[in-house]
């Protein structure tokens, strides 16, 4: 993917890049159109010399739609070439998805068990996910790093980290 | 000559106050740590430290705060270069080329260049503050809403230059950023836009988005390849750049420092804007602009000199006019007042000795920053010796806690995570992240100042061309935006007539 094309029609692009360009452009056009539609609910400005709260979002969204249409046109014009980048594979995408899910789970857990517990488990899980499988070192590193971060932010920088509703 | 004599007296006074010297070094060290941690900015560092300085004498207290300020602006570059975690918004610009250099095994030289350039930019700004403060102070008063709008548009015009392989994709990222920047309270009427009823979105914090797009996205990417997972991050290499290499960067550093000082003087414009503008100008003047974004030392030097050049500029208007140049100096304004000093034209007359002692101390702070920075780089570079299977979880844990620290909000971590996922896919499909960050910084500034200027002119658009600074900045902005497009169009035409076009230009 790193050899993706410039916007012009002179260079080609792999099929996966072309599909991604088209999907992203269509999604962004939908987002921009929704933004323009929802500005209809914005109130009119009280100041005679002001353009109101809707003007700038409408301008940005309109330009975004035009740019996405240009991207679609360029993508359709460019020839399809073979993809020379090594494929990520299902296992690779699964690793990324699990990492994202672990982060979301850490965020959710932090509300209930607090920063310290959630982060220790989160770090140990991420290390396991990345191939560091030591049953001794994973928890030790997770506890030490979390303790250092906790002390730095909570005590030295006076940032009150979440305690968790279960421990309040 | 008068200023030089006063400065010498200041040096003598400072030399007799070792506690002030020690505290300024402590401030610099704290600033570097705070700047390096994601989510914690120099503003936050100064605000955290402020209560501790109440009991100190004015010189010690104010120098400690200055140390945090200078160290904080510089510190952001360390994690930006090593880990692609911009500790501060200005460091997001440094990360563009700094992290590419790390990937090439040149992290040490990148860090050394950043440290030297921060020092030179900062020192230049303090010297301008000392010797040219009264001359330049009036410049800040020339800046009203219309000039600030034009400056923001000029900043936004850089998007075309930092778009990477595809200008269209860069512009799409930029305008998506501008659309996201409109989420929250309308700057004139206070009407909540696109918030979906969430009060947390009334003021969209751009730092979580920045941390997500840069650091979290990079961490997620390193999870996809099992071979990368257990490997070492990268080598540090030599730290101090060879003189022949750095000599070629002196022009970039000088230009960027001047830009930083000028932008610092402008009220409301800070080191983040200075870093991006300096980067763009370095690229524009470079003989090899195509190398920018792929690991060019000039890019790192420009961002750091520009960002640190801002410090003296921001202090200049704060001390001479009582107008803070950015958020940090706004907090420092409070610190000065609490110490019984009233910033403004009379400060230099009534407390001249104290002011020049502070100036001498600020020079000492920058020298201290250079020594501490260069001395600690080898130690900080050990981060790269960690296996990625440990480093990536540490990066993500820092992203989470750093994001939380901005507003003590779990909601912000959600924003960071969403930005991280978006950033991962953007990276994958060659949509650059920097234009989004730039748009989030400049977008609200452009809108608020445009509407303010329009109100001030009674609804007339005359201010766009009748005010000289506004007209010049807008013209330069249009040229900056169009030139890369014209160049690429011409290159493509040449490619079509002369053979196949290179995919990456």
Q: Top keywords for this entry?
A:
heterodimer, A: 168 residues, mainly alpha, 2 domains, 4 helices, 64% helix, flat, disordered N terminus, B: 505 residues, two-stranded antiparallel sheet, disordered C terminus
Tell me what you see in this structure:
The complex is a heterodimer of chains A (168) and B (505). Chain A has 168 residues and is mainly α. Chain A has 2 domains: 15-77; 90-157, no CATH class. Helices cover 64% and strands 0% of the residues of chain A. Chain A is built from 4 helices and no strands. In chain A, helix 1 packs antiparallel against helix 2 and helix 3 (89-129) packs across helix 4 (137-156). The radius of gyration of chain A is 24 Å and the shape is flat. By secondary structure, chain B is mainly α. Chain B has one domain (1-229, 236-491). Helices cover 73% and strands 1% of the residues of chain B. A two-stranded antiparallel ribbon of chain B has the order 1-2. In chain B, a hairpin with a 6-residue loop joins strand 1 and strand 2 (192-193). In chain B, helix 2 (18-36) packs across helix 3 (42-49). The interface between A and B is large, with 82 and 77 residues.
Overview in brief:
Chain A is mainly α.
Question: How is the topology of this model organized?
Answer:
The complex is a heterodimer of chains A (168) and B (505).
Chain A: H1 15-38, H2 55-77, H3 89-129, H4 137-156
Helix pairs in contact in A: 1-2, 3-4
Chain B: H1 2-15, H2 18-36, H3 42-49, H4 58-83, H5 89-103, H6 107-141, H7 145-156, H8 167-181, E1 184-185, E2 192-193, H9 206-222, H10 226-229, H11 243-247, H12 250-265, H13 271-285, H14 297-321, H15 327-338, H16 347-350, H17 352-380, H18 388-407, H19 410-428, H20 434-456, H21 463-466, H22 468-498
Antiparallel strand pairs in B: 1-2
